[in-house]
Write a structure and sequence with these properties.
The structure is a homodimer. With about 400 residues, chain A is of the alpha/beta class. Chain A has helices spanning about 20-35, 55, 65-70, 90-105, 120-130, 145-160, 165-180, 190-195, 260-275, 290-300, 310-315, 330-335, 340-355, and strands at about 5-10, 45-50, 80-85, 110-115, 200, 205, 215-225, 235-245, 280-285, 365-375, 380-385. Chain A has 2 domains: about 5-120 and about 215-235, Thiolase/Chalcone synthase (Peroxisomal Thiolase, Chain A, domain 1, 3-Layer(aba) Sandwich); about 135-210 and about 240-385, Thiolase/Chalcone synthase (Peroxisomal Thiolase, Chain A, domain 1). Chains A and B meet through α2, α3, β3, α4 and β8 of A and α2, α3, β3, α4 and β8 of B. β3 (about 80-85) of chain A pairs antiparallel with β3 of chain B, so a sheet runs across the interface.
């Protein structure tokens, strides 16, 4: 198995991009990554594309071929593969790209993700997103994602005394980080009161506890580690790529405050990278709702179970804290184009490890982690990246 | 890169399976393959799932997690990944499974495909299938797949003198093969007259020139070649796995009678397997329409360009011919559950190479090829399998 590195990254603005189509945003991110990597089009070997629901959002499947074609690569006949695992589609596209390079099947691979969510009405969007849950056991009963995560939050509050203020502090932190990210959908500060006074979506989650509906695309260029320095002085090495499944429905889990796909993927990733949670300098985690970030930092082993809310209020996960979480602004403030998110996380880690993250730069971090979740935890994917091989 | 083998296969009946759900048919095929491989559940490392449009057909995405869960594998937290490339989704799932084993990331992998197409009305099915073409350039203009392939057929007839009788002879042959396949959707003989007297769908394609709408699932178990004989006396070795993209729309191709993604993927596959078309004993090719089989046997190099129709009439591609094509009955008679087809082709090749194909057994063939196409040729994937490593 060959070692693998990221040699280039690209990302569109995240937001309501009504003047751009799916194919345009994907190719914008991809070309940006290819230019960043100093790769020529003819050197590209394969594309992997994360997308959750092109069928519902833009009435288009066969997205691999679409993108290869629109990017002008059809003449090269490069293999182009769409990968889907709901909101973890991006993370899985990244992982398939890594495996493809590790295998020797391909050398220079672009792994990207994109979602165009604002071309349909919000009811269609909500129903399309509900397809990430178990339609037969959850969707047809009327469960939508705010409702599912609200149940997780309720139990977390009951078991561990987590408060609405603690939940809100996740949103406040991530909005603060977003003010320093020029690509973020929301670049404004908010306060605890902003969250608590905002409209209730599903008790206890207010609208400011929820990540937004977003258009956006992101991409990375992956290469064998042995040739990475041919393209860049600052390759970022993939130290681990791990994926795990859990039950698709909440009702089948022993404890819904723990996403056991996350704990399983994290365990594999730490083993593969030969590190512990203490070695991780910072992370991009899947904060689709504020409660999700609290569960994530617990399930990834950064804090003890039940202490995620308290740790957030105390600043442990802030930019200057012991382990900064979601320096990009996370799904909450940077935005959550579902198929793009998992790749955008790797873009942020790469920028941070290179020292290219501008005002939100974390000093001295050498190892970063990404954590991308599909649905309410049916899929989790964890990657660990390092400045050193 | 490790060599890879197929150690088990499984397939549901193909047809209108109104009494079974998507999850049921996938798990039925998967368990059948796992039992065939003598693998224990705990040995499984990963799942790859080919599916074109769960979002439109069953309002369900996140199919990897769904299947891992319904198969009772959520507790093992195995990675489970859905792959999509329209009608080539199955072939790509197979290819990702092969790459995952070749890389060393995983050892025992199930690659399967499934589509449940009959739970929605036929207008929805037709529109969902049109999402395999370019929605902005073809779909919104009213183009559906019979129309696109009819244009290919018209030009092929114009350039090469191909006749409606020659097209029909593909259907007659594949229906004949289907009579010997107990899993096939259609197991009845038809005649040239049956085809020519059937209703016209898109001139010159009659309904009997078209593959049907089908429910079905298929699966294979993949393992490193070095340990394959631990599980079976008759492993089937993967000699090549190649994939290529072409333009998504017909109008961008230099010659629509050639699917250049097929020629590119075939060239790569022959090189990887170190064989020529003459070395291939038999093949399962993508006959979504009769014209598609004629183009395929030309583009794969089995006959000269323009001679596919004539060769079919002369029996070259019949079961007793020089190179039997679609012994399973192909998409035309066995049926075409779009996400399952690419995997079902590998199931057929495996059964033939093992000598397990019953009445349709091809004597003495040592090397078989599969050819799976997405849309009108935006994606093509070619695999070559052998009895010997």
């Amino acid at each position: 198995m060959r070692d693998v590195a990221i040699i280039g990254v690209g990302c569109t603005e995240f937001g309501e991009l009504w003047d751009k189509s799916f194919r345009e945003i994907f190719v914008e991110a991809g070309i940006s990554a290819i230019e960043d990597a100093n790769v020529q089009g003819g050197e590209l070997d394969a594309l992997y594309i994360g997308n959750m629901s092109g069928g519902r959002f833009i009435e288009q499947e066969h997205l691999g071929a679409l993108i290869a074609d629109y990017a002008g690569l059809a003449g090269l006949h490069i293999p182009s593969t769409r990968v889907e695992a709901a909101c973890a589609s991006g993370g899985l596209a990244l992982r398939q790209g890594i495996i493809a390079v590790a295998s020797g099947y391909h050398d220079i691979v672009v792994a990207g993700g994109a979602e165009k969510m604002t071309d349909v009405d919000v009811e269609t969007t909500t129903d399309a997103l509900a397809a990430a849950a178990d339609r037969e056991w959850e969707g047809v009963m009327g469960a939508t994602f705010p409702g599912l995560y609200a149940m997780i939050a309720k139990l977390h509050m009951h078991k561990y005394g987590t408060t609405q203020e603690q939940l809100a502090s996740v949103a406040v932190k991530n909005h603060h980080n977003g003010t320093m990210n020029p690509k973020a959908q929301f670049q404004n500060e908010i306060s605890i009161e902003t969250v608590l006074n905002s409209v209730m979506v599903a008790d206890p989650l207010h609208v400011f506890d929820c990540s937004p509906i977003t258009d956006g695309a992101s991409a990375v260029v992956i290469a064998p580690a042995d040739i990475a320095k041919k393209y860049t002085d600052t390759p970022v090495y993939v130290k681990a790529s791990a994926q795990a499944s859990g039950t698709l429905s909440l009702h089948d889990r022993p404890d819904i405050t723990t996403i056991d796909a996350t704990t399983a993927a994290a365990k594999r990733a730490y083993k593969m990278a030969r590190v512990t949670p203490d070695d991780i300098g910072f992370a991009e985690v899947h904060d689709c709702f504020t409660i999700a970030e609290i569960c994530a930092i617990e399930d990834l082993g950064f804090v003890k179970k039940g202490e995620g809310g308290k740790a957030t209020v105390e600043g442990l996960t802030a930019l200057g804290g012991k382990i900064p979480i979601n320096p990009s602004g996370g799904l909450k403030a940077c935005g959550h184009p579902v198929g793009a998110t998992g790749v955008k996380q790797a873009v942020e880690i790469t920028m941070q490890l290179r020292g290219d993250a501008g005002k939100r730069q974390i000093d001295g971090a050498a190892i970063g982690l990404t954590h991308n979740v599909g649905g309410s935890g049916g899929t989790a994917v964890v990657h660990i990246f390092g400045r050193e091989r």
